[in-house]
Design goal:
binds pyridoxal-5'-phosphate, disordered C terminus, about 15% strand, alpha/beta, three-stranded antiparallel beta sheet
């Protein structure tokens, strides 16, 4: 059997073998609790602090500004609900973009049910949130703005430098969900006035079940969990040392290899986009042509919008893993994507996107195999209804 081609790195990435080797000792005899004072405990504490320092270095932050969490989802929830719990008394208003991941949208909806004013900011047809729209949405009571650094469906990069400056000049906190962007494009919380930033380890060749929230020193925020006071009281629980050892190594590798990896991945992505646009009839790219993650592309195929799941399963059968929309929307593939809807696509098209996302281990032959398989599968699917009607 031919080896499978994995092109769904926006859903999750394979753990880098160097990350795995950093984790393995902690799954064996090393059993100390980082809270303990003995040598085993101090050894574990050192591993946790190394992970924190590496995540901080990836973002240009100080280590004491990093809260290690159990996922990107948890980091987003802590940012939105934790910041809201510390809002000053009185009227409060929050702005989030309409294209956020559910781990931001759902906490925002919860705030709305609790009486906080919430504005869902639109984006343009290219998937980009306009800072001028943000400026118009702000109110005297706006306390928090949240716009993702890169979208998980389209891969489009948002102008977070400008957006964070608009929020800061208004006196509102700025949060960015950088789960898709971290480790792939440079992020710098010193250059940009970002107060809160979420990331997730399994999107950057680290283990699943680990994330981090950057909290700018002095940002008012309350914990969601209550317990033994770990993570500066913001995320109490015994630290998941084996996982965090992997987070630290994954963050370091991402930082050290980002520049070279971005050049390599952009070249692969261009091969992919050009291959699909020229080799697959009726294909178009969703989102801004170039302002996108190095390894991310999202396509629509004319007359096959209703067939995205069929197409995905045909590709799967051919040994190729890609995604229709986002990984969490795959369970509801019959529903239009809220991201594509916000970009102005109708309900039919908004159900029909195909997401291809490259990672550290993706190669040129992977891309070529995908383009050939997609071209064949699309042609077969398009022929099918014609044959059926010819028989009818
Ligand atoms: N935010 C974005 C943009 C994502 O793409 C994801 C995961 O797909 C998350 C948040 C959630 O991260 P996690 O899977 O670590 O909970």
């Amino acid at each position: 059997m031919a080896p499978r081609v994995y092109l769904d790195n926006a859903a999750s990435t394979p753990v880098d073998p160097r990350v795995l080797s950093a984790m393995l000792p902690w799954l064996g005899e090393a059993c100390g609790n980082p809270g303990s004072l003995h040598a085993e405990g101090r050894h574990a504490r050192a591993a946790v602090e190394e992970a924190r320092a590496e995540v901080a270095a990836l973002l240009g932050a100080d280590a004491d500004e990093i809260v290690l969490t159990g996922s990107g989802t948890e980091a987003d929830n802590l940012a939105i609900l934790g910041a809201a719990a510390a809002f000053p008394d009185g009227e409060a208003h929050v702005v989030v973009s309409a294209i956020e991941h559910p781990s931001v949208l759902e906490p925002a909806r919860r705030l709305s049910r609790l009486g906080v004013g919430v504005t869902f900011l639109p984006c343009g047809a290219d998937g980009i949130v306009d800072p001028a729209d943000l400026a118009r949405a702000l109110r005297p009571s706006t306390r928090l703005v949240s716009v993702m650094a890169a979208n998980n469906v389209t891969g489009t990069l948002q102008p977070i430098t400008e957006l964070s400056r608009v929020a800061r000049s208004h006196g509102a906190l700025f949060h960015t969900d950088a789960v898709q962007a971290a480790g792939k494009v440079p992020l710098d919380v010193r250059r940009d006035p970002i107060d809160l930033l979420s990331l997730s380890a399994h999107k950057l060749h680290g283990p699943k079940g680990a994330g981090a929230l950057y909290v700018r020193r002095g940002t008012p925020i309350a914990p969601l969990l209550h317990g033994g006071g770990q993570e500066n009281g913001l995320r109490p629980a015994t630290e998941a040392v084996p996982v965090l050892a992997g987070v630290g190594r994954a963050a370091r590798l991402a930082r050290e290899e980002m520049a070279d990896e971005a050049v390599r991945t952009v070249a692969l992505r261009e091969r992919l986009v050009e291959g699909v646009l020229s080799g697959v009839e009726g294909a178009s790219l969703v989102g801004h042509r170039f302002r996108r993650l190095p390894g991310h592309a999202c396509f629509l195929l004319d007359r096959l919008e209703g067939e995205a799941v069929r197409l995905l399963l045909d590709l799967d059968e051919a040994g190729i893993a890609v995604s229709s929309g986002s990984a969490c929307s795959a369970r509801h593939a019959d529903r239009p994507s809220h991201v594509l809807t916000a970009m102005g696509f109708d309900a039919v098209k908004a159900r029909g996107s195909l997401r291809v996302s490259l990672g550290r281990f993706s190669t040129g032959p992977d891309v070529d195999a995908f383009v050939a398989a997609l071209s064949g599968a699309a042609a077969r699917l398009r022929r099918r209804p014609a044959r059926a009607s010819a028989r009818a």
